[in-house]
Amino acid sequence: MAFDLHMALVIVAAAVATYATRIGGYILITTMKRIPPRMEAALAAVPAAVLTTLVAPAFFIGGWDSKLALLVALVVGLRASHTWMLIVAWLFVLGWRHTIGM
Amino acid sequence: MSRADFFDGLRGGSAIAMASAPFGALFGALAVDNGMSLAEVTFMSATVYAGASQMVGLELFGHNVQAWLIVASILAVNFRHVLYSAAIAPYIKHFSPLQKFFTFFLLVDPQFAETLKRGEAGKPVTFVWYLGFGIIIYIPWVLVSLLGGLLGNYIGDPKLIGLDILLPAYFLGIVLDFRHRDNFLPVAAVSAVASVVAYHYVGSPWHVSLGAAAGIILAALFPPPPHEQELESDLHEV
User: Fold this and answer.
1) Could you give the number of structural domains in chain A?
2) Is B165 inside a domain boundary?
3) Which top-rank group of organisms is this from (chain A) (predicted)?
4) B residues 38-77 near A, CB within 8 Å?
5) Which end of chain B is less congested by CB atoms within 10 angstroms, N or C?
6) pLDDT tens across B29-85, in order?
7) Do residues B145 and B37 lie in contact, with contact meaning Cβ atoms separated by under 8 Å?
8) Residues of the domain holding A72
9) Mutation choice for A interface testing from B54, B61, B82, B105 by most A CBs within 10 A
């Protein structure tokens, strides 16, 4: 139940950064009136770009169990919600590891 | 009137709270599994209050990444909120400064989507409605994270029960949510390739910033769309 000071500071910094993004657009629009199109395009691309960098290496360094589970999750995700993606990927990995092995 | 608005908000927000609950619990369980304490888990959910970025934090805490890079990655994932607060500006101008302070704190993806929808439909966006909608998502989010953390204490080897697949699968799901945005495929493809190359030649955690930068620069280089982009929230949970 320890409360690590370093961890607490990182969390506070993350909270302040997040709050800055939530108030930032309001400040930007009330001072600039309009966000330049290229800047808007760049901003819109940020979350997908960042999250892709967390998935792609996980896919390449993972074993066949993880690779195939992510591919199955991808197919499921085009049709169904996040919850189903997680359930299917999880069952796939569990099934693989308990039949074919780790 | 304001009482009815508040309950209207509660009703709308409760559906979002239920949809978000499994992810809050997952965050708590994986966080404890990665060595965070229950107090830290609860504190993070209560202050950062942005699911995808909290998961990103976890992923990086587990890799002994420098603190500023963790914060920068969380900032990057949450950068979409800049567009949200710009878009709802016309509908919340009449809020008092204190009300605005709470408004921005509670501005998660579905909160943004509902506020914009309500404003565009010509319905009054009152602070009590906004607050009702927001706290019915916020309070369960914090509680469910704690609950997940309590369960996380009983998890043994995460690989044995397949938990290690959940984080990448979750991130994949969020990436897919953005697939209707302009230039999604080239941005995702370039970020994917750049991150894998950076992972091999520069090393973790730089693949995150280098890969993301490649995709973002590409998006800025594309000719801007001739039409006004319809801004929507792509995520349906916290």
Assistant:
1) 2
2) no
3) Bacteria
4) 38-40, 43-44, 47-50, 52-53, 56-57, 59, 61, 67, 70-77
5) N
6) 999 988 899 999 999 999 999 998 999 999 888 777 889 989 998 998 898 888 889
7) no
8) 38-102
9) B82
